[in-house]
Amino acid sequence: MKENRVWLVIRYILLIIASLVVCFPILYSLLISLETSEHVSTYPPQLWPHPFHFASYAEALQAAPLGRFLLNSFIMSAIIVCGQIVTSLLAAYAFVYLRFRGRGVLFLVFLATMMIPTEVTMIPNYMTIRSLGWLDSFAGLTVPFLANAFGIFLLRQYLLQLPYELFEAAKMDGAGHWRFLISVVVPLSRPILATLAVYVFLQSWNMYLWPLLTTNSTSMRTVQVGLGMLQNQDALSWNLTMAGVVIISLPTLILLFFAQKHLVKGLTAGAVKG
Amino acid sequence: MQTAATKTTMPVPPRRHMKEMVAFLQASPFLLPALLLFTVFFFYPIVKVVYLSLYLTNSKGVAKHFVGMQQYVELFTSPDFIQSLRVTLEFVLLTVIPGVFIALLLALLLEKQIRGLSVFQTILFSPISMSVAAVSTIGLMAFNPSVSLLNWILSNLFGIPNINWLNGPWTALLAISIVTIWMNLGFSTIVLLGALRNVSQELYDSARVDGVNALQRLYYITLPSISPTLFFVFVVSMIGSFQTFGQVNILTQGGPAGSTNLVVYSIYRNAFFNFQYGLASAQAVVLFLIVLVLTLLQFLVVERRVHYS
Amino acid sequence: MERNQNASRRPWIRKTAMWTVAASFGLTALLAGCGGGNTGSDENAAGGGGGANNGVIELKLWHAMGGVPGQALQHIVDDFNKSQSKIHVTAVYQGQYDDEFNKWKATQGQGGKDGPNIMQVYDIGTKFMIDSQDIVPMQDFIDQSHFDISQLEPNILGYYSVGGKLYSMPFNSSQPVLYYNKDMFKDAGIAEPPKTYDDVLADAKKLTKKGPDGKVAVYGIGLATYGWFFEQMLATQGADYVDHDNGRTGTATQAVFNGPEGLKIVNWWKSLYDAGVDLNLGPVTSQTQNAFLAGKCAMIIDSSGVYGNLVKGAKGKFEVGIGPLPRPAGATGGTIIGGGSLWITKDQPKAQQDAAWEFVKFAASPQEQAYWTETTGYFPITKAVYDDPGFKDWLKQYPDFQVAVDQLHSSKLTYATQGGLMGVFPQARQTVQDMLQAVLLGKQQPQPALDDAAKKVTDAIKNYNLTVA
Question: How is this protein annotated for GO cellular component (chain A) (predicted)?
């Protein structure tokens, strides 16, 4: 018992150290955003702003319609999340529970799509979106991302860990693939689907080049483009930029805070193998 | 690869074709949505990229002169590209192995239900919510030796002399690696933690009876049990590292003297600034093949040993 | 068993999901409320495709100005829209110069549907824009409307004029100058900012201070390895960057910056670094600005456009002074204008082109230019601004800015100070930056490094010319 307590203390100490290291950049940006422009550039660096200077936030909101951008980012990310959940789940299901010729090869072909840098496919895809007449619309922002090999890969790995007996039992009950998918696989995969949803949401939220390329009006822009609008290329205003960083990161941090509980409970329910 | 699906036996030969048709028809509604999207937004661009790699392109990226394999030859005789490949491989090693290792440690720390866990979890997952642009902008500040809080802490707490991070050939790559590891940490930790929490309690219980110590338990029970997830995290991190771009673009622009000129960054420069879309396409094809071979190797060598339930 | 577990899990999942959505929406709405004021009424226009409705001609202006210059540009656009009722301009930020430029390349050839009517392009994109043949030279409009350009700064027009034709209207214009920390200069007993390379080295040695640990605490100078500075330093020696008179009398075919003038620059740079008086923070100038403001270096070279920012950042810490860009003793050349200009695109009806010209004229007017300079620190492009009483007051407030103005006016317009012209300038600049870093890090000696860089740029020019022809 005594040994357990020692381990617990060590665990806490390590967790605190890790937390400090990991959240250092975020705290750092928060502190800088609260400095005045004279105090940003000093050495030794000023750790604690005095007094707290909130003007940078007002200025950031003034410099770019960040509210509108946040809304756009939210809608765009939400659409992509829904699309990817559906396409990934269906494909992953096929790769695990259906047998057809060329399954292994097809999986690798799917996987290969992950290995192409987006910088390379961007221009051809831009042309495609343009010829579809989807520039400056949510369709253009989201459709190319509705399927992603990453999600398929993640779900496949997860489904492979589920006991195969479940499938056989369902078959004995006379359930077809669709019923098995909806009534057994979906409920059991909820934690991993949540993980995927959060991941995809954040990835979409953080896209920069694609939204910039395919939207033409300020009213269709997303937050990452908005961050650029705060930056004067020749003379960076650090406090203003960091205020922008905090504003655009805040919604995702909040999302994570709530989703985190969700994820954890989903994961600890131990539904998979009890 | 002992997957669950192979457990059922294949049907008898005569009606094989018929059966295959049925199986294919059964699978198609599941696969079609993804397949359709991939065809339009991935396979078509790849074909186009391969095509362009055989041509000299004009400043707008339109194929002008057929040159065959010439640009590939040019690439492999160019010291800049060789350096770029070397730097990329170094970078992948510097980020993937430590990255997964640290994420595993964090996940092990978070595994046990203790007080305040959700606070620690939120903090340790938080990097996932930051964008490359945001993190790199913070990096500009944190790696500037004249205003860096990071350097100040390093020198005052650990006595490490002031490092000019982004302007030493070795430290610049290290700085980019640190940023990359940090950014990937949140996701890897979440996925690994999920896997850890799903390891069967019965296995642990029986181990306790056998008097196994913590390290043995980790090695003989935990790691094999989470090996599919571990494998997944490795493959995804590797592919992600090969595609790193934003950090380089904002923090070092490939410098100093090409020491952080990762292949994707060099593709970007060639395609968008140097008006050499054809050459950039050739680079993209080479990168694609490298990543493909490495991934296939991982599947052939590693997934065999990965333990699925 | 499974089902029961799921049923018991469902309520909290719903609850958290709802919370998450509610929180995100709430926050979004909150921010939308705060920032909504400036979204403006321009939005409907932007999506409209730049056509005419109700007799009002809608124009799209693409630009790359973030932060303060971005807001100042919006102000000029608003002024223009208020000044008349026939034309309505919508300014759209399209990312930094490079992003904007690339996006423009991708939108070419679709009847102006998705592209801009007016486009701000950086200086080094000039040749590419001309070669693209997707633009209408500004000169056509000037001739057509008999616009008087005698009031415009000849030294600024020089850059954007090719073969006697003005291709674009200069907009944001700047030159590099030497900024120095007046307090540090006083402490070191130096009265004047250094003018020559030797002076800089000597002063930088005096200004460099070591801390108690024997490490350098304050560097004499923080010189960003920015390719633009190298281009400028060639011009101060009257040397060209590429052949055919800097690409001004014919299409450039090779880089010539590896002559004795180029070597002088690189040798000097290396001597500063080797003497331990140069703080090398790479090519990004915001890094050296940061060091300068933190008092880690006594001098920096940077664009005249960042003066206002430096003064603001140094407030309460030290006084910022400006000196001219240093040069080798006896060099008699001048400096090149840098920044960006406005282009009118070809892919649009004549009525829209003419409307675009109206806006360009408006942006170049003394009143708007005075506002522009006072807000951003970029040079006014018209000399009439110097007679503006408001501007005179502004100059009194920032007397050191006069040094930058004098440098601009004293430059004699030659092929060297007009600036090099080639399609692959962005690549050339990057190549030179890599070369400077390689020399400073001791990977290469100056002359071989210069020769290598020149060869790379020449190859790129050849490739470019092959595909343009």
Answer: plasma membrane
Q: Which domains does chain A have, with CATH numbers?
A: 64-229 (1.10.3720.10)
Selected residues 226-265 of chain A with any CB under 8 Å from a CB in chain C: 228-238, 240, 247, 250-251, 254-255, 258-259, 261-262, 265
Task: Specify the pLDDT at position C52.
Answer: 52
Stretch(es) of chain C classified as CATH 3.40.190.10: 45-174+338-397, 176-335+424-468
CB pairs under 8 A between A and C: 191
C286 near B CB under 8 A: yes
State which residue of chain C sits closest to A218, comparing Cα positions. C92
Task: Take residue B259 and report the two structure tokens written for it.
Answer: 């020491």
Is C1 near chain A, with CB under 8 Å?
A: yes
Question: How far is the alpha carbon of C360 from chain B, nearest alpha carbon, in Å?
Answer: 27
Check CB contact under 8 Å for A67 and C19.
Answer: no
The CATH architecture annotation of domain C45-174+338-397 reads 3-Layer(aba) Sandwich (3.40)
- Per residue in A183-241, pLDDT (tens digit) is 889 998 887 888 888 889 888 988 888 998 888 888 899 988 888 888 877 777 888 88
Choose among A74, A219, A232: nearest Cβ to C67. Answer: A232
How many CB contacts within 8 angstroms connect chain A with chain B? Answer: 275
Spell out which residues of chain C touch residue B161, defining contact as CB-CB under 8 Å. 215
Q: How confident is the model at residue C13 (pLDDT cuts 50, 70, 90)?
A: very low
Measured between CB atoms, does C108 come within 8 Å of chain B?
yes
Taking the C-alpha atoms of residue C194 and residue C279, their distance in angstroms, rounded to an integer, is: 17
C308: which chain A residues are within 8 Å (Cβ-Cβ)?
A: 235
Check residues B213 and C267 and name the one with the higher pLDDT: C267
Residue B185 Cα to chain centre, angstroms: 12
| pLDDT tens string C344-361 | 999 889 999 999 999 999
Provide the percentage of residues in chain A whose pLDDT is more than 70.
94
Residues of B in contact with A118 (CB under 8 A): 243
Asked if B149 contacts A225 with a C-beta cutoff of 8 angstroms, the reply is no
Pick the CATH number of C176-335+424-468 from 3.20.20.70, 3.40.190.10, 3.30.710.10, 3.90.1520.10: 3.40.190.10
Burial of C317 (0-12, 13-18, 19+ CB in 10 A): middle
CB atoms within 10 A of CB B199: 19
- Give the domain B78-302 fold: MetI-like fold (1.10.3720)
Q: Which residues of chain B have pLDDT under 70?
A: 1-15, 303-309
How far off is chain C from A204, nearest CA to CA, in Å? 15
Contact of C464 with chain B, judged by CB distance below 8 Å, is answered with yes
| pLDDT surpassing 50 at residue C148 | yes
Task: Tell me the ipTM for this assembly.
Answer: 0.86
What is the predicted pLDDT for the residue at C110? 61
- List pLDDT tens digits, range A41-97: 877 777 777 778 888 898 888 888 888 999 999 999 999 999 999 999 999 999 999
How far is residue C327's CA from residue C417's CA, in Å, rounded to a whole number?
14
- For chain A, the average pLDDT equals 85
Q: Work out the average pLDDT over C136-158.
A: 94
Task: Say yes or no to pLDDT of C199 above 90.
Answer: yes
Mutation to test the B interface, candidates A31, A32, A69, A119, most B Cβ within 10 Å: A119
| Tens of pLDDT, residues C226-248 | 999 999 999 999 999 999 999 99
Would you say B146 and A29 are in contact if contact means Cβ atoms under 8 Å apart?
no
Contact C70 A232 (CB under 8 A): yes
Mean pLDDT for chain C? Answer: 87
Q: Where in chain B are the domains?
A: 78-302
Residue of B nearest to C213 (CA): B161
